[in-house]
Amino acid sequence: MYTYEHPHPAVTVDAVVFTVRRGSLHVLLIERGHEPFKGAWALPGGFVEIDERLEDAVRRELREETGVHGIELEQFHTFGEPGRDPRERIITVAYLALIPSDRLEPRAASDAADARWFPVNGLPSLASDHGEIIAKALERLAERQDAASVHRPIER
Q1: Interatomic CA distance for residues 9 and 81, integer angstroms
Q2: pLDDT tens-digit profile of 25-40?
Q3: DSSP classification of residue 40
Q4: DSSP assignment letter at 68
Q5: Cα(155)–Cα(138) distance, rounded to whole angstroms?
Q6: Could you write out the DSSP letters of every residue in 82-137?
Q7: Which long-range contacts (CB under 8 A, 24 or more apart) does 131-134 make?
Q8: pLDDT of 42-57, one tens digit each?
């Protein structure tokens, strides 16, 4: 194993998966089954294994905690505020997806006690800085929408 003179932060990944259900934007959350934040709602995610690519880690965590797999995920931001996790210094790399609402029904698995869709305008209390992560993901979605509208041909 590695031994260094200076401590190193741990790295995690988080998945922000959106869909439109009943006309409103929803996000996929899990209920944490273990400490820290046991019982709180959070984004699916977890620690990156030492020999694992980030993209593989986020797909693995999403599948393990919600049963969701086979979706395209885009890396959109890194969050590393000291103190964001009580266990140790953790930096998380966040990924984003927007999928059709009929694509899947999540089911809790691994260390998640529950998994379900929540409307973004009615989120429960969230673990750690996951509210900030969702807010940043919503900004990215808005940027995508703005970019798409710029590239649409003008109809005459």
Answers
A1: 11
A2: 999 999 998 889 999 9
A3: -
A4: -
A5: 28
A6: TTSSSSS-EEEEEEEEEE-TTS------TTEEEEEEEEGGG---BSTTHHHHHHHH
A7: 132/79, 133/14, 133/16, 133/43, 133/77, 133/79, 133/92, 133/94, 134/16, 134/27, 134/43
A8: 999 999 999 999 999 9
